[in-house]
Amino acid sequence: MRAMILAAGRGSRMRPLTDQLPKPLLTAAGTPLIDYHLHKLAKAGVTDVVINHAWLGQQLEAHIGDGSRFGVSVAWSPEPAGGLETAGGIIRALPMLGDGPFIVVNGDVWSDIDYHELPTQLGDAHGHLVLVENPAHHSEGDFALSDGRINLETTPRYTFSGVSVISPQLFAGFDEGFLKLRPVFEQAINGGLLTGRLHQGYWCDVGTPQRLAELDRYLRIDLDH
Q1: Burial of residue 103 (number of CB atoms within 10 Å: 0-12, 13-18, 19+)
Q2: Structural domain of residue 38, as residue ranges?
Q3: What is the rounded average pLDDT of the residues 10-32?
Q4: What is the per-residue pLDDT for 109?
Q5: Nearest residue to 96 (alpha-carbon basis) of 39, 48, 58
Q6: pLDDT tens-digit profile of 93-105?
Q7: What is the model's pLDDT at position 222?
Q8: Mind listing the pLDDT tens digit for each residue in 27-61?
Q9: What is the CATH number for 202?
Q10: Confidence class of residue 176 from pLDDT cuts 50, 70 and 90?
Q11: How many domains does one find in the chain?
Q12: Paired residues of 209 in beta bridges
């Protein structure tokens, strides 16, 4: 199975930490965030990973290279200044991701989600989203879950974790360009084409220096034990 790590964001809320360093190279417990993703993907049997970048992408390429030291083969998908947003970045990278479902992971999240539990086939669905309980900074949530299907009508709502399995079919009818994932997901939801599951373990959206520090403390406590 293939995977894509979304790593093109500017990380404005992380400034000044990201003024000279791309956010995926920020460290928690001494390890760059993107290294955790690559190790987890390799452990789950993923062999080919596509990584997009826009802000200071040359640093990412210099750090990761061809991915061999992580046990994967990495292909790079450069984007113009400012990036193409989440869906736009995936659409640009589709020719490198093949015809089957692939894992997508936001480069700025950390979790104990077990990638082995992600589906390798989607049946009639075009995507499978991992949802989590709403954090304090996103208390309204994103999507609801009913009988394994994602919807926008029922409650409670949960937060999208940034981890998913996606079929290229999800993007049918969308052109390459600046595009967020939300409208793509909503079109699929309206067609009953998104499944999901709720993860109740640890998850952190590493969006601010404070949350990076919280993750660092969590991982160091785990290392001490």
Answers
A1: buried
A2: 2-224
A3: 84
A4: 94
A5: 48
A6: 999 999 999 999 9
A7: 65
A8: 999 999 999 999 999 999 999 999 999 878 799 99
A9: 3.90.550.10
A10: confident
A11: 1
A12: none
**pTM (predicted TM-score):** 0.94
Contacts of 218 by beta carbon, 8 Å cutoff, 6+ apart: 202, 204
At 11, the pLDDT band (50, 70, 90 cuts) reads low
Distance CA 101, CA 128 (A): 10
DSSP β-ladder status, 31-32 and 73-78: unpaired
Using a 10 angstrom Cβ sphere, with 0-12 exposed, 13-18 middle and 19 or more buried, the burial of residue 169 is: middle
d(CA 121, CA 175): 25
Question: Which positions ≥6 away from 221 have C-beta within 8 Å?
Answer: none
Sequence-ordered list of residues with C-beta below 8 angstroms from that of 143, at least 6 positions apart, any chain: 129, 131, 150, 151, 152, 157, 158, 160, 185, 189, 196
**CA angle at residue 95 from 80 to 7, to 5 degrees?**
45
The counts of H helices and E strands in the chain are: 5, 13
Percentage of the chain lying above the pLDDT 70 cut: 97
DSSP structure class, residue 134 = P
**CA-based nearest residue to 99, from 44, 186, 166, 38:** 166
Q: Are 163 and 105 in contact (CB under 8 A)?
A: yes
3-state class percentages of the chain: helix first, strand second, coil last, to nearest 5: 35, 25, 40
